Amino acid sequence: MRLKKEINAIITIGSRDFIKFIRDRFRILATFIFPMIFIGILGGSLQSNLGKSVGFNFLTFVFIGSIGQTLFQSTASGIISLVRDREEDFAQEMFVAPVSRFSIVLGKIFGESMVALAQVVGIILFGLIIQVPIDWGHMARLIPFMIIPCLLGGAFGVLVLANLGSQVSVQQIFPFIIFPQFFLSGVFAPIKDLPPVLLVLSRIAPMTYSVDFIRSIYYYGTPEYSKIVLFNPATGLLIISVIFTVFLSLGTFLFVRNERER
């Protein structure tokens, strides 16, 4: 009975966030702008200039990287609604409900994960339109694993936003945390060989493991695998599991503590 109540809470909170997304036309439009620019303009340009010299298709490389980046970033950014809920006192109403605090946070992550997955469907359709060279067999095997970057992004969002007190601080600080990871995580270029400082920063950036994990699944068994992928899928999944557990536990603890101190 207790487990059923927790599951119902997760589904209810998650469904609320997804419904809010599909009703927000501006957010739907905005979420596709950056991936389309990155894939269509940047990816195409890099393919024209560097594609032959690196030994793999840069447009496909950026396309798959953008999927990993979108799954992570969209879920992390979507958790911003926790701050909005806090300012509207909706968070306090949720946290006095007779359900686990982890269920409430997981419900938020679940909802934003559904949003991120919907966005990826749009990105794939865009890839079809501009004729990105995609191996659809490899793409199909990505489907069961797309939730993994969403979970990591959600846990990361909870940890960061638990320490931000208002939407103003979110708008000022969060972009400085997210945007550098676009480049450090290897969305646009391989990061196997980097100068020491950039190497350390890239390995610290959580988005790195989302992007690399998605690429490791897609490119597994291909000649390009060794040139592109940092960690094999099993190692990547283990790293993500550890980071997710730490971020979710610490982020939930800090968020609940801050709510109690209000």
Automatic annotation (TrEMBL):
One cellular component term (GO) for this entry is: ATP-binding cassette (ABC) transporter complex
Primary residence? membrane
Q: Which UniProt keywords apply?
A: Cell membrane, Membrane, Transmembrane, Transmembrane helix, Transport
Q: How does it sit in the membrane?
A: Multi-pass membrane protein
| Entry-linked Pfam families | ABC2_membrane
Q: Where in the cell is it found?
A: Cell membrane; Membrane
GO molecular function term, any single one: ABC-type transporter activity
Q: Which segments cross the bilayer?
A: 26-46, 58-83, 104-130, 142-161, 173-191, 234-256
Identify the residues that the record assigns to the ABC transmembrane type-2 domain, covering every copy.
26-258
Give the family per the record.
Belongs to the ABC-2 integral membrane protein family.
Q: Mind telling me what this protein is named? A: Transport permease protein
Please name the source species: Candidatus Roizmanbacteria bacterium RIFCSPLOWO2_01_FULL_40_42
